[in-house]
Design goal:
CATH topology: TIM Barrel
CATH superfamily: Aldolase class I
CATH architecture: Alpha-Beta Barrel
Helix content: 25-40%
Number of domains: 1
Strand order of the largest sheet: 1-4-5-6-7-10-11-12
Number of strands: 12
Oligomer: single chain
Distance between the termini: 15 Å
Strand content: 15-25%
Order of helices and strands: EEEHEHHEHEHHEEEHEHEHEHH
Length: 241
């Protein structure tokens, strides 16, 4: 199975940022030109991009739409997008714009049938469900509210709902650049039959390879590639060797 490395371009207030555990005001990276940052990863050899509208995730309204549209229209690569996709219309507008895959979080948890509907209209491969976990519990509404369900239970649900893949984020390690805990990812991979992309704390080439060996279909890298702790080009080369 192939393994994709997704550089993250997280949008907040028109900038490319990286937060610690998704907390507003905890920016460890804040850069003025998100398109330039996306181009940077493409020039290093990336064929994928992971874009999250953090304002949308937290406020429920996608306010970074113009920046997102510019990135999608400028770059020719696989783009997955999440954050603030609360309605079917939101998802459809992104898919029709040319986004390759939408990431549904809060909306999927509130209305699982939306996943089935979008999968039927656009294909399962274009619909990803985000399961963001803190201390074993899935969270919602921009990581502001904890549910009483775990990732495996909901992974089974969304597999049945015809989601094409799962984005599994370990909030406990997200944005801290302290490495990963691969076991939650491994358990989810073993429990479901659809691809799982892992995120949260990936900070070394070894972390990337460990997630690949755990069966993940990909990994999202953010803070570590912006701060220089992880050499993105080196990670790509390691995956190809």
């Amino acid at each position: 199975m192939s393994f994709d490395l997704f550089p993250a371009v997280d949008l907040r207030g028109g900038k490319c940022v990286q937060l610690v555990q998704g907390v507003p005001g905890s920016e460890v990276v804040s850069l003025d030109d998100p398109l330039a940052q996306a181009l940077r990863w493409v020039e290093m050899g990336s064929s994928t991009l992971h874009i999250i509208d953090l304002d949308g995730a937290i406020q429920g309204v996608r306010i970074n739409g113009p920046i997102l549209q510019k990135i999608v229209e400028t770059l020719d690569l696989f783009v997955q997008v999440g954050g603030g996709i609360r309605t079917r219309l939101d998802a459809e507008s992104l898919l029709n714009l040319g986004v390759d895959r939408v990431i549904l979080g809060t909306a999927a948890l509130a209305r699982p049938e939306m996943v089935t509907e979008l999968a039927g209209d656009f294909g399962s491969e274009r619909v990803m469900v985000a399961l963001d976990v803190r201390k074993g519990k899935v969270t919602t509404e921009g990581w502001q509210r904890d549910l009483e369900k775990g990732a495996i239970e909901l992974g089974h649900l969304f597999q049945e709902r015809e989601a094409g893949s799962i984005l599994f984020t370990n909030i406990d390690t997200e944005g801290q650049v302290r490495g990963i805990d691969p076991e939650p990812t491994r358990r989810l991979v073993e429990a479901v039959d659809i691809p799982v992309v892992a995120a949260g704390g990936v900070s070394t080439v070894e972390d990337v390879l460990v997630l690949r060996d755990a069966g993940a279909a990909g990994a999202v890298v953010g803070t570590a590639i912006y701060t220089g702790k992880l050499d993105f080009r080196e990670a790509l080369l390691a995956l190809r060797s």
